[in-house]
Each structure stands twice: as C-alpha cells, then as structure tokens.
C-alpha cells in the first residue's frame, strides 16, 4: 500500500478524514456495530448486504470487504 492508497474518508459519513479515522460524531457505540457505508479510499456509497452471520460491503472501484 502506498501513501496515495491510505484511507482518507470516514466509513460512516463519507467526509474527509486523514488516516481514515472516525469523526467524533461518527465514533459512538451505535456506529461501532454498523457496517461501513462509504469507501475509505474514494468516499463512494457502498452496496451493503447484511445477513444474520455478518455483512459484506462492495465499492464499484475498490472491491469487496466483509465482517470479521
């Protein structure tokens, strides 16, 4: 991963966030359990699929991530 590939956006609100860190408003117990909604690399909305066993989130540019 290069410096240009470093996460730059919040996964909960999509706003710019150096290092991909959550904003204080986005960092709370409720959001800790929620799947990401925005890509950390390009801030695009993710296609999120939630199931009883976990979740998957897919960015059209950066691919898929999954829970634990």
From TrEMBL:
Keywords: Biotin biosynthesis, Iron, Metal-binding. Pfam families: BsaP. Residues 46-67 form the Biotin synthase auxiliary protein C-terminal domain. It comes from the Bacteria. The keyword Iron applies. Its cofactor is iron-sulfur cluster. Required for the activity of the biotin synthase BioB. Belongs to the BsaP family. This is Biotin synthase auxiliary protein. It comes from Amycolatopsis plumensis.
